[in-house]
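[step 3/7] inverse_fold.run input=structure_tokens len=131
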């Protein structure tokens, strides 16, 4: 049975749980700031880079998009093709940044619409929300 995750942070938490690594040990190994895995915000590109370089067996595509397997199968082959892997890594990170910006924009729009639809909101605000 395949487990589904809401975001990359949940996938990282699942990985460290399976590896029996505490959050504190994870922070020490990766250099990621304490508490990052407990915050509501999504992981930053910088954090994902640190995770990627600390745990090379962990699939970047799985972390970001939940595509493929959690662990990369052929580490030696990927290390030999490091230049290609780095290019793909950068492309994936750029796409992730675009998606995070879009999520932020949509969350802002949702909040604006909630306020406009709230009881007591003026009809002008509701009309503006409909546009």
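[step 3/7] decode complete -> sequence:
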């Amino acid at each position: 049975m395949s487990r589904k995750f809401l975001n990359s942070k949940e996938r990282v938490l699942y990985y460290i749980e399976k590896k029996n690594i505490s959050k504190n040990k994870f922070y020490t190994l990766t250099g990621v700031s304490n508490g990052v895995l407990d915050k509501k915000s999504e992981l930053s590109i910088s954090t994902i880079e640190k995770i990627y370089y600390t745990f090379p067996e962990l699939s970047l595509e799985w972390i970001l998009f939940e595509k493929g397997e959690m662990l990369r199968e052929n580490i030696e082959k990927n290390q030999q093709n490091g230049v290609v892997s780095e290019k793909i890594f950068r492309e994936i990170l750029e796409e992730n940044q675009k998606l995070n910006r879009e999520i932020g924009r949509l969350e802002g729009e949702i909040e604006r619409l909630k306020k406009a639809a709230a009881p007591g909101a003026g009809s002008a605000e509701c009309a503006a929300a409909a546009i």
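[step 4/7] annotate
The mean pLDDT is 81.
Helices lie at 8-18, 23-30, 45-54, 60-65, 75-80, 82-117, 123-130.
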